[in-house]
């Protein structure tokens, strides 16, 4: 399965809506879209994973890189709407303690 990436951006905030699977095949396109958003000081990135049913360790690596970039660039990343299967990957690895993860996104472009 492929990965669809929709980015809704303004000056200080971006919402990244993902749909499909994040794996070794699709991770490079996610990295290409996500990492630049984390490199602007003060920028908030919200990643909506509602329509992602599968993610492997390659996907985790992309999110870890994005988180590291936010720390280096004084920006932020928040993950929302994780399906159980994807949420378990973060829980098992302990990354749920490192990332800001919200169950439900509030409003339209948050």
Automatic annotation (TrEMBL):
Residue ranges annotated for the STAS domain, each copy included: 3-110
Record organism: Lentibacillus juripiscarius
SUPFAM superfamilies tied to this protein: SpoIIaa-like
Role, per record: Positive regulator of sigma-B activity. Non-phosphorylated RsbV binds to RsbW, preventing its association with sigma-B. When phosphorylated, releases RsbW, which is then free to complex with and inactivate sigma-B.
Keyword annotations: Phosphoprotein
Gene3D superfamilies (alphabetical): STAS domain (3.30.750.24)
Protein name stated in the entry: Anti-sigma factor antagonist
PANTHER family, sorted: ANTI-SIGMA FACTOR ANTAGONIST TM_1081-RELATED-RELATED, ANTI-SIGMA-B FACTOR ANTAGONIST
Family: Belongs to the anti-sigma-factor antagonist family.
Entry superkingdom: Bacteria
Residues passing through the membrane, by range: none
